[in-house]
Design brief:
The protein is mostly beta strands and about 200 residues long. It has one domain. The protein is about 10% helix and about 50% strand. It is built from two helices and 13 strands; from the N terminus they run αβββββββββαββββ. The strands form three sheets. A five-stranded mixed sheet has the order 5-6-7-8-9. The N and C termini lie far apart (about 60 Å).
Length: about 200
C-alpha cells in the first residue's frame, strides 16, 4: 500500500476544504497579491462563490487590504490556475489570447490614468462574456470599488489611450462586435461613454 506523507495529505485536505489559493509576486513591482477561491462544489457553474484577495506591501511585508466578495457565477476552472492572470504594469501575460472578454482572473493596470496600479477581479461569467469588479487605488494606497467601471463598463478594456484618457472595449453581440469607448474627465474625475457602435463581420 502506498503511504502518503502527512504534509502532502494536509495540503490536499486544505485545498479540498478551502479551495484554491494563488500567490502572485509578478503582477506588481510593489505589491504581492494573494487570491483565494472557496471550494465551489462539483457543478460546472456555481453561484455566489466567495473570493478573497489579499494585498501585501512587498517592502514592509504588511497587509495593505483584504477584498472579499461573492462572485455572481463562475465556471469551476476560474481561479484554479494561478497563471491565468494579466498585468499591464509588469507585462505578465500582457499579450495572452483573450476569449469571450476573459482577460484572466486578476488584471492589474492603471485604469483611470493616475499612474497608480489598479485591480480588476473576475466576478461573473455568462454566455455574453466575462465581467469584472474594478478596484482603483487611492492616494492612501487603498483600493476602492469603482461603481461606473464595475456596473457600466464591466469588461476589461482592449485598448488604453493615455493621451486621450480613454478605454476601449470590444464584446461579441451576435455576429458583430460592439465597440465602446469611455473617457475619464480628469477635472471632475468622472467617466463618460463617448462612443458606441457595432462593427459588422468581415
Amino acid at each position: 500500500m502506498r503511504v502518503i506523507p502527512l504534509t502532502i495529505l494536509f495540503s490536499l485536505l486544505l485545498t479540498s476544504t478551502f479551495g484554491q489559493t494563488c500567490i502572485h509576486d509578478d503582477l506588481s513591482s510593489s505589491l504581492r497579491i494573494t487570491v483565494t477561491k472557496r471550494k465551489p462544489g462539483d457543478s460546472i457553474l456555481r453561484s455566489q462563490v466567495p473570493i478573497e484577495v489579499t494585498i501585501i506591501d512587498k517592502a514592509s511585508k504588511k497587509n495593505v487590504q483584504v477584498i472579499s466578495f461573492k462572485a455572481t457565477e463562475l465556471y469551476h476552472k476560474s481561479f484554479t490556475k494561478c497563471n491565468c492572470v494579466r498585468s499591464y504594469s509588469t507585462g505578465k501575460n500582457r499579450n495572452a489570447i483573450v476569449t469571450d472578454t476573459d482577460f484572466g482572473d486578476i488584471v492589474v493596470a492603471d485604469f483611470n490614468f493616475d499612474s497608480k496600479e489598479d485591480i480588476a477581479i473576475k466576478s461573473d461569467e455568462e454566455n455574453s462574456g466575462t465581467y469584472y469588479r474594478f478596484y482603483l487605488q487611492g492616494k492612501d494606497k487603498l483600493f476602492r470599488l469603482d461603481p461606473f467601471l464595475t456596473d457600466s463598463m464591466s469588461i476589461v478594456p482592449t485598448y488604453f489611450n493615455k493621451v486621450r484618457k480613454t478605454l476601449t472595449t470590444y464584446q461579441r453581440a451576435g455576429v458583430r462586435d460592439a465597440e465602446q469607448i469611455y473617457r475619464m474627465d480628469m477635472r471632475t474625475n468622472k467617466w463618460h461613454l463617448i462612443r458606441h457602435r457595432f462593427i459588422p463581420p468581415l
